[in-house]
């Protein structure tokens, strides 16, 4: 059984040996869901990518990009409901592409007509733009290909630096979020959180208590059956830090919602429509309830959780677990069907605001944040 | 009879102790002695009362109790003072006990309070020699005698001198005998002995103290079948407003049968009063359900209209018949009509969602599957900690219904499955159209409403209530928060809470014992041997079992100041989420509830 | 050629190519105008286009959609002349590549189909109101991808668009039924999603489309069914109606002075506000209604 540390050790040791072994190993762990939470997943993916890039061989950037895309595709296939892997790799891809465009622009003489090379995602003007674009680009690329042999190492550097920056960003996410979110809580407010597994929410609450010295009460739902232990742990930690904490069963949310000032949720992934996946079941109903009571819901999420995907088919993204937690004892003669959703999709209309490490945004603006960090071309990784 | 002997032995002791008690340092002791003296006096009064016991009537007992109430009040205050002093004394050592009431539900009676009341009651009522477990606490007959010793010695603390000890044991013995065969007087000490210290603290509120006293005074009036029912209710052995109501009506049948009108009054006047005592204790198990309240109101009405000239036997016969007729009409026939009415909505191939467990719904679905041979799927949604849905799912499954069992956290997934109807049971429907039902119902109804799935409520008109209420926080029932401590999906709440209370009790007792043992070391042989025998046999064994059992994260949450667990039982569903209420009067919109209430009143 | 009429040219384009959309026809007409007039200076070119666009929008009763085309064209010209100063090459480019725009606009429909086909799942029942080429091409593409879905088409009175779509869908073998417009409310619970096209997409992200779209949108929202708008991004138009009344259509909403022999009255277009729209499927990708505003802002203030 691979332990969580084994990945790191394997990364550290066998650097000369087959990178593919490491990848296979990582994929296997993804498939077995042995990586807990998007945070760890994002960091491990980046470590893997760092090794991958440092060992990759390519003659032109486009080849590097292609290789990274293939890796990302494999990782995404391994666990289609884990978005963190794909997200961070896409971010790195965007960094590389940006650099590539930059270079194109500085190298090519025609690039002065910036209306052509403008890195707009895509625009209404596409319709009327000059048809030479493509030919130009191809020409440029051809020129580029000849030149780029010199500065191949450059791109490796760029990618590695991008990874380092991203790791830095991810590890410091909580600070950024706290800065913004602290002002959203007033004294003696009653908060409710249905996502006790979220470390971001926990840290946020602790910091708010610590820094602003505001007294507030936190209602914690249990997330039965999958996250009850985590919920209790969460409540205990809050209570130990002198935050008034009340544990409530999941069923009592509606009854208490009229007393709740704000609902805080953690997220597992955020989609461009402003909807999100949370890794506790029941969050959707809680947010719906909050919406019904006009209680504001704010979601805390690091930027790396933003996915450039659109949740076309929500059911595809929601995971289901085994029945033993729902119904541990069953009469063998009269077996019951059970359903146990592990994650939950919260539609954008039930979330009022997203607090990220780069600022607070309305769900309707999430698409822009996503496009700022990803390239449209990388959304679909499958060929 | 060791009683008089013990009393005479005690008298000089007390006086001796009381006379030199003038220094401030011995204030504590003094109060102790005073207490004993008081008890003495009461005992004397009791003895005198006993002489006339053969002819004691209900009225007499009540009168007697009233006379003694003042004294008991004093006694109680003394005890409280003692406790406070004791707390001050071992201030740094003893962790302050908080009354665990959540900020939101401070106005509601907690299970602990109820349970403590029940415990004190049981301690007074049961005088059998066999130890047994009731209501969530341990009943060891010897305890009734013993605890007085630790209690007094502990309160006198280190100042207890060696010459005090021998009489203490004597006193304990005497008290033991006294408590075992007397009634009211044993009650308060008995309570302190049996209820765990934590629960004891809850009686700080004067109101609850007096209500308990009231109950204890009248405990002799309580019919055994009511006591049995009380425990069944308190332990959630009988759940659901209809089963509870039926059980109550059955118990009342027995009560009426065994009732004998005291001299000088009439059945129509006295029986109502007598029933009130039964109801008071029933209330302590759990707050009365609306069905029970309605049935009681009806019954009292029926009693009051009985002609005082009717002979007792005949009147009782009439009442018994009326009670069974009431149960038949209001519940059995009503259910049959509801099933007839509701069946039109159970269609072939439809998917029906239901929540928790409802008797009439189970019957409805089984009827449709078995009698009408319809093919449909039922999704039973359930929630922690009661898991009532498991019972319903199991019942349906056994009758061949296609059942899917899910928890309330999976609501989103459930409603993605092309659900056709949501059928809900009710605890009560309020006059403003709100549905008062098992907590979680409102959320389910809301989700259904937002997805345009019709929500149907099946409900006997017996459940209609005159009350109006706007949100779930103002009036609700608090269940035991300890039910939520365990994480295991298979928790049986009652067992767990019993275990919890038991272990807590044992722990406290062993602590008391240790303390008293240390204090009594020089010559407290009899006490120590006795206590050690009991602790070594019972306490350690249970202790180990509780420790070996899987540890929960929130064990000991009571000691964490800022941690609270709220476990409410009901919530309110606004009428706009409800499409239709199916009653024996046909299908109604929620707005018609007050209409039926007026109608129903005129009928009854 | 001095008799050049922008309106006639526009109508001719629409007539010749049934696949062409109104904004594209307007752009084509303006390109033709440039070719004919061949302005000598930047200022002349701009003035010519401006007055022609005004003539065009004034003369055509249903001008919202074509206004979008004129706007884009104007902005493109202005941008290239003012900001980059290369108006000559711009004019040249426009004149020479008239046909290219048409083919591009058709391309964008394919792109929409590719993007939008993810919105259709197996066993879906989809309600469509009005006829839209974008919606049709999306269905066609999805059917080619072997997605099994069924379509409910509204009759789309007072036009015959429902019938048109019905027969087209039947031709390519997609199971389809047609209902009267007023039956939407009774079937809305049975459908999974709603697709509509758009004449124009307003600044707020709301859409202007065949009359009845608004009621379908309200019903869909009430039933919590996703309501998707399938449209090309050149239909984004810089206007911000607050309600259907704001559209200032030639046919007043309620005209009580109508002659008795023609009893039917009322508008042929209506405005569906953004809160009823789940997402817009465009050639720029899947947009939330709020993203429309961003695109327009970018176009006007870049």
From TrEMBL, chain A:
It is found in: Cytoplasm, Cytosol. InterPro entries: eIF2B_beta_subunit, IF-2B-related, IF_2B-like_C, M1Pi_N, NagB/RpiA_transferase-like. It comes from the Eukaryota. Residues 131-153 are annotated as: Disordered. GO terms for molecular function: guanyl-nucleotide exchange factor activity; translation initiation factor activity. Its main location: cytoplasm. One of its GO terms (biological process) is regulation of translational initiation. Signal peptide: none annotated. It holds the Pfam family IF-2B. Keywords: Cytoplasm, Initiation factor, Protein biosynthesis. GO terms for cellular component: cytosol; eukaryotic translation initiation factor 2B complex. Component of the translation initiation factor 2B (eIF2B) complex which is a heterodecamer of two sets of five different subunits: alpha, beta, gamma, delta and epsilon. Subunits alpha, beta and delta comprise a regulatory subcomplex and subunits epsilon and gamma comprise a catalytic subcomplex. Within the complex, the hexameric regulatory complex resides at the center, with the two heterodimeric catalytic subcomplexes bound on opposite sides. Belongs to the eIF-2B alpha/beta/delta subunits family. This is Translation initiation factor eIF2B subunit beta. It comes from Zygosaccharomyces rouxii.
TrEMBL record, chain B:
One of its GO terms (cellular component) is eukaryotic translation initiation factor 2B complex. GO terms for biological process: regulation of translational initiation. One of its GO terms (molecular function) is guanyl-nucleotide exchange factor activity. It holds the Pfam family IF-2B. SUPFAM superfamilies: NagB/RpiA/CoA transferase-like. Residues 149-167, 526-547 have a biased composition (Low complexity). The keyword Lipid metabolism does not apply. Residues 1-99, 147-168, 510-549 are annotated as: Disordered. Residues 31-40, 72-87 have a biased composition (Basic and acidic residues). Keywords: Cytoplasm, Initiation factor, Protein biosynthesis. It comes from the Eukaryota. It is found in: Cytoplasm, Cytosol. Belongs to the eIF-2B alpha/beta/delta subunits family. Component of the translation initiation factor 2B (eIF2B) complex which is a heterodecamer of two sets of five different subunits: alpha, beta, gamma, delta and epsilon. Subunits alpha, beta and delta comprise a regulatory subcomplex and subunits epsilon and gamma comprise a catalytic subcomplex. Within the complex, the hexameric regulatory complex resides at the center, with the two heterodimeric catalytic subcomplexes bound on opposite sides. This is Translation initiation factor eIF2B subunit delta.
From TrEMBL, chain C:
The keyword Cell wall biogenesis/degradation does not apply. Transmembrane segments: none annotated. SUPFAM superfamilies: NagB/RpiA/CoA transferase-like. The keyword Cytoplasm applies. One of its GO terms (cellular component) is eukaryotic translation initiation factor 2B complex. InterPro entries: eIF2B_alpha/beta/delta, elF-2B_alpha_N, IF-2B-related, IF_2B-like_C, NagB/RpiA_transferase-like. It is found in: Cytoplasm, Cytosol. Keywords: Cytoplasm, Initiation factor, Protein biosynthesis. GO terms for molecular function: guanyl-nucleotide exchange factor activity; translation initiation factor activity. Component of the translation initiation factor 2B (eIF2B) complex which is a heterodecamer of two sets of five different subunits: alpha, beta, gamma, delta and epsilon. Subunits alpha, beta and delta comprise a regulatory subcomplex and subunits epsilon and gamma comprise a catalytic subcomplex. Within the complex, the hexameric regulatory complex resides at the center, with the two heterodimeric catalytic subcomplexes bound on opposite sides. Belongs to the eIF-2B alpha/beta/delta subunits family. This is Translation initiation factor eIF2B subunit alpha. It comes from Zygosaccharomyces rouxii (strain ATCC 2623 / CBS 732 / NBRC 1130 / NCYC 568 / NRRL Y-229). The lineage of its organism: Eukaryota, Fungi, Dikarya, Ascomycota, Saccharomycotina.
């Amino acid at each position: 059984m691979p332990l969580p540390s084994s990945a790191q050790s394997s990364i550290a040791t066998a650097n000369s040996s087959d990178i593919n072994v490491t990848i296979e190993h990582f994929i296997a762990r993804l498939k077995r869901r042995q990586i807990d939470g998007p945070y760890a997943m994002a960091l491990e993916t980046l470590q893997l990518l760092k090794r991958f890039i440092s060992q990759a061989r390519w003659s032109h950037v486009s080849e590097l990009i292609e290789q990274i895309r293939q890796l990302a595709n494999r990782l995404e296939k391994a666990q289609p409901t884990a978005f963190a892997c794909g997200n961070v790799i896409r971010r790195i891809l965007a960094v590389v592409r940006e650099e590539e465009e930059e270079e194109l622009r500085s190298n090519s003489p025609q690039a002065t007509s910036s209306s052509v090379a403008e890195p707009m995602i895509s625009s209404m003007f596409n319709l009327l733009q000059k048809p030479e674009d493509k030919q130009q680009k191809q020409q440029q690329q051809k020129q580029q290909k000849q030149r780029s042999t010199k500065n191949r190492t450059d791109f490796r550097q760029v990618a590695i630096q991008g990874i380092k920056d991203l790791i830095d960003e991810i590890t410091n996410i909580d600070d950024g979020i706290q800065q913004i979110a602290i002002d959203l809580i007033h004294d003696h407010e009653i908060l409710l959180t249905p996502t006790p597994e979220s470390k971001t929410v926990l840290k946020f609450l602790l910091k708010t208590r610590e820094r602003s010295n505001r007294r507030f009460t936190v209602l914690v739902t249990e997330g039965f059956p999958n996250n009850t232990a985590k919920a209790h742990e969460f409540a205990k930690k809050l209570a130990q830090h002198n935050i008034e904490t009340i544990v409530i069963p999941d069923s009592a949310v509606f009854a208490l919602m009229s007393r709740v000032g704000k609902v805080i949720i953690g997220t597992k992934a955020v989609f461009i429509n402003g909807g999100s996946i949370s890794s506790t079941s029941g969050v959707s109903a809680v947010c719906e309830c909050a919406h019904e009571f006009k209680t504001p819901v704010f979601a805390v999420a690091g930027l790396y959780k933003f996915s450039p995907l659109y949740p076309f088919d929500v059911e595809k993204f929601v995971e289901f677990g085994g029945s033993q937690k729902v119904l541990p004892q069953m009469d063998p003669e009269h077996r019951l069907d059970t359903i146990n959703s592990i994650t939950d999709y919260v539609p954008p209309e039930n979330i009022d605001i997203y607090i990220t490490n780069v600022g607070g945004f309305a769900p309707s603006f999430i698409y822009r944040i996503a496009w700022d960090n990803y390239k449209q071309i990388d959304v679909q990784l499958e060929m | 009879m060791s009683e008089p002997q013990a009393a005479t032995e005690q008298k000089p002791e007390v006086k001796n102790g009381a006379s030199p008690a003038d220094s401030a340092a011995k204030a504590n002791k003094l109060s102790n002695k005073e207490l004993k003296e008081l008890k003495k006096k009461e005992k004397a009064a009791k003895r005198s009362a006993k002489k006339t016991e053969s002819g004691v009537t209900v009225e007499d007992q009540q009168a007697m109790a009233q006379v003694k109430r003042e004294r008991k009040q004093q006694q109680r205050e003394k005890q409280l003072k003692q406790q406070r002093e004791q707390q001050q004394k071992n201030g740094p050592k003893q962790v302050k006990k908080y009354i665990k009431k959540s900020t939101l539900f401070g106005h509601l009676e907690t299970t602990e309070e109820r349970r403590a009341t029940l415990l004190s009651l049981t301690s007074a009522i049961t005088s059998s020699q066999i130890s047994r477990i009731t209501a969530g606490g341990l009943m060891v007959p010897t305890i009734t005698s013993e605890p007085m010793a630790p209690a007094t010695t502990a309160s006198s603390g280190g100042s207890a001198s060696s010459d005090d000890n021998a009489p203490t044991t004597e006193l304990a013995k005497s008290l033991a005998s006294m408590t075992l065969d007397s009634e009211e007087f044993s009650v308060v000490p008995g309570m302190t002995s049996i209820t765990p210290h934590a629960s004891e603290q809850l009686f700080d509120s004067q109101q609850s103290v007096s209500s308990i006293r009231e109950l204890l005074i009248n405990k002799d009036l309580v019919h055994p079948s009511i006591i049995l029912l009380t425990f069944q209710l308190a332990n959630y052995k009988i759940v659901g407003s209809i089963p509870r109501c039926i059980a109550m009506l059955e118990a009342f049948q027995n009560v009426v049968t065994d009732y004998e009108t005291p001299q000088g009054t009439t059945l129509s006047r006295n029986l109502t009063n007598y029933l009130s005592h039964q109801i008071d204790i029933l209330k302590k198990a759990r707050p009365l359900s609306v069905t029970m309240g309605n049935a009681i109101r009806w019954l009292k009405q029926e009693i009051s209209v009985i002609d005082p000239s009717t002979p007792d036997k005949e009147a009782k016969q009439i009442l018994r018949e009326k009670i069974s007729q009431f149960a038949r009409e209001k519940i059995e026939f009503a259910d049959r009509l509801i099933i007839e009415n509701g069946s039109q909505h159970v269609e072939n191939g439809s998917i029906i969602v239901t929540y928790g467990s409802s008797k009439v719904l189970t019957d409805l679905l089984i009827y449709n599957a078995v009698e009408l041979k319809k093919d449909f799927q039922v999704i039973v949604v359930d929630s922690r900690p009661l898991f009532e849905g498991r019972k319903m799912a199991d019942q349906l499954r056994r009758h061949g219904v296609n059942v899917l069992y899910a928890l309330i956290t999976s609501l989103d997934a459930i409603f993605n499955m092309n659900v056709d109807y949501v059928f809900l049971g009710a605890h009560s429907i309020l006059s403003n159209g709100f549905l008062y039902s098992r907590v979680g119902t409102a959320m389910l109804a809301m989700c259904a409403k937002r997805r345009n799935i019709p929500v149907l409520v099946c409900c006997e008109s017996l459940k209609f209530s005159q009350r109006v209420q706007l949100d779930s926080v103002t009036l609700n029932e608090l269940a035991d928060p300890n039910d939520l401590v365990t994480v295991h999906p298979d928790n049986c709440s009652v067992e767990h809470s019993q275990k919890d209370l038991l272990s807590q009790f044992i722990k406290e007792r062993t602590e008391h014992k240790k303390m008293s043992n240390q204090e009594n070391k020089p010559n407290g042989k009899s006490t120590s041997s006795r206590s050690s025998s009991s602790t070594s046999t019972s306490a350690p064994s249970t202790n180990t079992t509780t420790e070996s059992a899987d540890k929960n994260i929130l064990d000991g949450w009571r000691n964490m100041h800022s941690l609270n667990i709220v476990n409410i039982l009901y919530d309110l569903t606004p009428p706009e989420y409800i499409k239709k209420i199916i009653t024996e009067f046909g299908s109604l919109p929620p707005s018609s509830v007050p209409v039926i209430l007026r109608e129903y009143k005129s009928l009854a | 050629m001095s008799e050049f009429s922008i309106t006639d040219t526009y109508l001719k384009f629409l007539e010749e190519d049934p696949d062409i959309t109104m904004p594209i026809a307007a752009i084509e007409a303006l390109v033709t105008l440039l070719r004919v007039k061949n302005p000598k200076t930047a200022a002349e070119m701009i003035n010519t286009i401006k007055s022609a666009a005004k003539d065009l929008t004034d003369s055509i009763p249903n001008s919202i959609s074509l206004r979008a085309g004129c706007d884009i064209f104007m902005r493109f010209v202005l941008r290239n002349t003012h900001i980059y100063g290369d108006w000559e090459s711009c004019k040249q480019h426009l004149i020479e590549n008239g046909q290219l725009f048409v083919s591009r606009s058709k391309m964008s429909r394919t792109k929409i189909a590719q993007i939008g086909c993810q919105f259709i799942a197996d066993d879906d029942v989809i309600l469509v109101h009005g006829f839209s080429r974008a919606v049709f091409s999306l269905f066609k593409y999805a059917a080619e991808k072997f997605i099994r879905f069924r379509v409910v088409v509204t009759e789309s009175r007072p036009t015959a668009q429902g019938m048109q779509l019905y027969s087209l869908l039947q031709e390519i073998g997609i199971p389809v039924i047609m209902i009267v417009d007023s039956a939407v409310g009774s079937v809305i619970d049975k459908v999974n999603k709603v697709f509509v096209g758009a004449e124009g997409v307003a600044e707020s992200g709301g859409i202007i489309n065949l009359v009845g779209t608004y009621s379908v949108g309200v019903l869909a929202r009430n039933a919590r069914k996703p309501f998707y708008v399938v449209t090309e991004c050149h239909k984004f138009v810089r206007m911000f109606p607050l309600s259907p009344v704001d559209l200032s259509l030639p046919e007043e909403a309620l005209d009580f002075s109508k002659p008795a022999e023609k009893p039917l009255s009322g508008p042929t277009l209506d405005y569906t506000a953004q809160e009823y729209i789940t997402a817009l499927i465009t050639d720029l990708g899947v947009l939330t209604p709020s993203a429309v505003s961003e695109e327009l802002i970018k176009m006007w203030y870049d």
